[in-house]
Amino acid sequence: MEHYYRELVSFLSARLGSRQAAEDVAHDAYLRVLERTDAQQIEHPRAFLYRTALNLVVDRHRRQRVRQAEPLDVLDSDERWHIQAPSQEMQLDQRLALMQRALDELSKPCRDSFLLRKLEGLSHQQIAERLGVSRSMVEKHIVNAMKHCRLRMRQWE
């Protein structure tokens, strides 16, 4: 299914008007497909991936509309945004520790590609230039890192 990635990003770029946003949605779509809990084989993987991505675009658009309509003073006064329950905080710490363990198992170029994309928000081209590898290699590293982390998180939880 990885071979649809570039095609999907181009498709989404045309709809979103931003390659960066398109790459984010494509990554999220791949994660959604990888996170499926049912073991049923996907009959038409390309169509399924595109449908997932389009659903994410619609969700993203709805969230932006709600965010724009929400007065900022309401968000400031809402304690849910500032305080987490201790059990939620501990769960988050445990999940982060597991994620770090999974990332530590990856090769350095794979881990670096993933972290530069997800934490620093660099584009695939910027990562390729920084690491001295091809753009397609960066894309493969990121998809492989996502697969690996998802698999390990499932095994450990």
UniProtKB/TrEMBL annotation:
Residue ranges occupied by any RNA polymerase sigma-70 region domain in the UniProt entry: 2-65
Domain RNA polymerase sigma factor 70 region 4 type: 98-149
InterPro entries from the UniProt entry: RNA_pol_sigma-70-like, RNA_pol_sigma-70_dom, RNA_pol_sigma70_r2, RNA_pol_sigma70_r4_t2, RNA_pol_sigma_r2, RNA_pol_sigma_r3/r4-like, WH-like_DNA-bd_sf
Origin: domain of life: Bacteria
Statement: the UniProt record of this protein carries the keyword Calcium: no
Keywords: Sigma factor, Transcription, Transcription regulation
Keyword field contains Transcription regulation: yes
SUPFAM superfamilies referenced in this protein's UniProt entry, alphabetically: Sigma2 domain of RNA polymerase sigma factors (SSF88946), Sigma3 and sigma4 domains of RNA polymerase sigma factors (SSF88659)
Signal peptide interval: none
Family: Belongs to the sigma-70 factor family. ECF subfamily.
UniProt-recorded name of the protein: Sigma-70 family RNA polymerase sigma factor
Native organism: Pseudomonas taiwanensis
Taxon lineage: Bacteria, Pseudomonadati, Pseudomonadota, Gammaproteobacteria, Pseudomonadales
